[in-house]
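Worked example 3 (structure in, sequence out).
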């Protein structure tokens, strides 16, 4: 009986640990030299930082958009995707090599503000793409 209770307790603890870890992004470049971390602070503001070879390139900075809809504080994380490797090819005729291949890790963080509006932040390489959705 004690083993069953202990097993159940460990299972519940593992589930909560997985959920806690999935509420932030830790995205590395394919070669592992560049790293971007993003998470919510205690005020519900997205904070991110960028490092190269472990040295800060962009110190912890707040990220948000404010207009008709406020995405600067009071946010909740709805979901965080797992990082995926993505390869794209594109052409740039003005450069020495006309055809290029771009490989980067990609992840999304979906946020929701206090009025239930949603914002999706896409991390791709070290580019940020913001998409805003109404309720």
């Amino acid at each position: 009986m004690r083993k069953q209770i202990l097993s159940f307790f460990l299972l519940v603890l593992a589930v909560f640990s997985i959920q806690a870890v999935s509420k932030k992004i830790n995205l590395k470049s394919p070669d592992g030299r560049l790293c971007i971390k993003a998470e919510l602070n205690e005020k519900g503001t997205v904070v991110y930082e960028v490092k190269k070879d472990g040295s800060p390139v962009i110190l912890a900075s707040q990220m948000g958009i404010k207009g008709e809809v406020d995405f600067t504080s009071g946010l909740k994380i709805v979901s965080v995707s797992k990082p995926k490797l993505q390869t794209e090819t594109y052409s740039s005729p003005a450069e020495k090599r006309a055809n290029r291949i771009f490989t980067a890790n990609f992840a999304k963080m979906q946020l929701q503000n206090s009025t239930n509006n949603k914002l999706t932040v896409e991390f791709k390489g070290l580019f940020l793409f913001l998409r805003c959705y109404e309720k």
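Notes: The chain has one helix and nine strands. The longest helix spans residues 2-21.
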